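Exercise 7 asks you to align residues with C-alpha cells for two separate proteins.
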Amino acid sequence: MHVVVAIAALAVASTTHSFVTPDGRTRSWHEHVPPSSSKAAPPRSMPVVIVLHGGGGNGESVEKNTSFAQKADERGFIAVYPEGVGHAKFHTWNANARCCGEALQEHVDDVAFLVSLVEQLAKEHGIDRKRVFLVGHSNGAAMAERALCERPDVFAGAAVVSSPGLAGICTPKQARPVLVIHGTADKCASYEPKPECGGCWERALSSLFGVDMKPTLFSCDGAQAIADSWRNPTNASTDMITRTVEAAQCARAKTATAPVELCTIEGGGHAFPGDVVPCRRGRRACEAYVSEVGEPAKLDVPALVASFFL
C-alpha cells in the first residue's frame, strides 16, 4: 500500500468531475485534456491514460506530483485521475481479496466504476475506445491489473508500478501489453514474492509518534511472477530482449502476441519513480514517509508509458 503522511497537505487546483454509480456512491475524477492549440490528435480520436493513485492517496496528488499532464499535451492523450473510496484525501481501491482499506471492507466494485468512467469519457470526448490504458501505483497498480484482467474488452493495456499483484483473484486470459515497473528494495510491495508484505503506513506512523502499531499486511506476488502471469497468454518466447531506460533494466520476450516488459530498478524503493516527494523535507513526518518508501528513482514513467503504449 502506498504510504501517504497524514500531516502533509496534498492539494491541487483542478476541476472535479463526478457521477453516481449504481451502488449509490458519488465517484469523482480529475482530467486533463490537451488544449486545441496543441499538436494533439483530434479530440474524437484521442487515446486515454487512466492513472490510479496508491492506497491512502488521491487523484489530486497524482495529478500534481507527476508529469502525465505535460506528456498528454506532447503526445495527444487525455490524462484521467480517478479517486478511490475513503475519507478526506486518503482513498483506496478494492484491488484483490486482501487489499485495501475501506474499498475492500465495503466490497466496492471499482472495476464497474472504471468501466463507467470510460463510458462517461466516451460521451464527453469521443476518445479512441481501442486505446484506453491504465497506469497504477501500489494498490492502484493492483487495481489496474484487476480491471485489465476482468475487462480486457474495455482496457487495452496497463502499466503497473510497485504492484502487490492480484493474489489469485483473477488470472489473465487475453494477450494485452503490460509494463511492470518495480524496485528491488521496495519495503511496501516486495519485489520478491511474499505471503505477507506491506505495513508501510503503520511503520511510518510508529516512527513518527513513537507508538507500536500493528501493521496491515497483504500478500505480494512478486514482480517476476506478475510479468509471467501477463506473458502466459501472449505465447511469449523464452529468449529475451533487454534495454536500459534511465535507472531501470527492462526485459521483454523477443516474440509475443503482445509485449509484456519487466523494468527492474536495482535498489529502488516504493516511491513512484520521478515523482515529486509530496511533503516538506526535513520535517519528521516527511522523513518518516521517505524512510519507508525511499527516494523516487530516476525514471520518467509518463514518457516510458507513452512510448510503450502510444
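Second protein for Exercise 7:
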Amino acid sequence: MYTNLSAALTQLRHKLEGELHTGTTMRTLYATDASAYREMPLAVAIPHTDNDLKTLIQFARTHKTGLIPRTAGTSLAGQVVGNGIVVDVGRHFNKILELNEKEHWVRVQPGVIRDELNLFLKPYGLYFGPETSTANRAMMGGMVGNNSCGSNSVVYRSTREHTLEVKALLSDGSEALFGALSPDDFHAKCEGESMEAGIYRTVRSMLGNYDNQEEIRRHFPKPSVERRNTGYAIDLLVETAPFTAGGPDFNFCSLIAGSEGTLALLTEIKLNV
C-alpha cells in the first residue's frame, strides 16, 4: 500500500483508460448535487470501461475509501456527495444495448437518459413509464438507485417494479447478474465460495429466521403505503417464495432499486417497457 495517498492517486490515474481528477475545480463541481449539501470528494473518476470500474474498486479496497456512483438528474438530496471517489458513469456508460420487442424489455447502460430511452422506444410502440421532473436529463442508473416514480406512479408504479435484472460489480470486483430466481435457483446461488454466494447465504440466514421476519413486518411501513422509499427494501424480500409460501420469485433488484448506489456498481440494467 502507498503511504502517500497523492502518489497512490497518481498511480491510479495511469492505470485507468478513463479520467481521474484530483484538482480543486473538478472536485468542487462534484462536491454537491441539487441539494444544500456539500462535501469535497477525494477525487472524481470518469471511467471508460468495466476494467476501469474494477480498478477503482480495487483501489478503494486497498486504501479503505468509498466509491460514490453518480449519473445525473435523480438524487437531489445529497445522496451523491461524499468524501470518497465520485464515479461518474454517465459520461461513457450511456448505450442502449438490446431491445426485445416481443417480450417488452430493453437492456441499457446506467448513463442512458430516460427521455432519450423513450424516444428510442417510440417507433416500437413501447414506453418506460416511471419518470421524474428531471426526465430530460435523468439517467437510468440514478432512477434505479433512488427508485424513481414521478407523477405517473399511480399507473406505472416505481422503477423498482420495472427493473428485471442488473449486471453489477461487487466490492471485491467480481461480476454478478441479479434477477428473478425460483426457490431452487435461489438455494443453488447460495453454494460456492464467491462473494455473490456469500451474499445469498447471508440473506437466507437473516430472512429465513422467523423472529427477523416478524420484526421486519412489524416495523417496516405498511405495504399499502405506495411511496415508501427510505432505507433498504428488505421487507419486499421477506415476502418472496424462499421465505413466504406462494410469494413471487426472489429478486435482488428489489433491494438494489432504492439503495442509492451503496450495494454495487451497476454496468447494465434490464428494464420492463
